[in-house]
Amino acid sequence: MIPTSHPLAAVGGAFNAVFVEAEAAGQLMFYGQGAGGQPTASAVLGDLVAVARNRVAGVAGPGTTSYAGLPVAPMADTPTRYHVSLDVADKPGVLATVAQEFAAQGVSISTVRQDGAGEAATLVIVTHRAPDSALSATISRLRGMPAVRAVTSVLRVEGLQ
Asked: Are strands 26-33 and 79-89 parallel, antiparallel or unpaired?
């Protein structure tokens, strides 16, 4: 669930990538081959060399870094966009009551798509960035609404928008 304009969207084939956002360093992307005969052999050989070096040095593995003591931010405080899919009753007012619940929890809606199918409808909502705790509270409240038959998926959306 990333926009096609995001650098990770261009990663394909035998390549892997990790995208990191750090306060001090900004956005970083690490990209390279991660599958196939030669890349795998290279990784295995690198691991064997590291084990041999550690054995010669008399240590079990790499030492700790200066980053080991840094706190990890609580997930509840982490702002992210979300893609929420709901199975709802297809009747007037359902969209309004669902939107009101998002607003009550402080979660702003970016886009909405609703497809009706007789008495039921699929409602897909993409949010603006919101703390995980606010989205979790919204989902909990939606699950208790009579018009919401099921919360079918909740996915984090990565990217700048």
From this structure: unpaired
- Record the pTM: 0.62
Q: Give the dihedral sign, CA 145/148/151/155.
A: negative
Q: Name the residue among 115, 136, 113 with its Cα closest to residue 124.
A: 113
Tokens of 82: 């979300």
Per the CB < 8 A criterion, the answer to whether 31 and 38 are in contact is no
Each residue's pLDDT tens digit, 109-152? 999 999 987 889 999 999 999 999 999 999 999 999 999 999 99
Find the helix or strand (DSSP H, E) in which 57 lies.
Answer: helix 37-57
Contact of 17 with 29, CB cutoff 8 Å = yes
Beta carbons of 30 and 17 less than 8 angstroms apart: yes
Distance from C-alpha of 145 to C-alpha of 91, rounded to nearest angstrom:
14
Q: What's the distance, CA 14 to chain centroid?
A: 22
Q: Please list the residues that pair with 150 across neighbouring strands.
A: 87
- Read off the tokens for 127: 């949010």
What is the β-pairing status of strands 120-127 and 79-89? antiparallel
Q: HSE of 85 in the Cβ direction (CA atoms, 13 Å)? A: 7
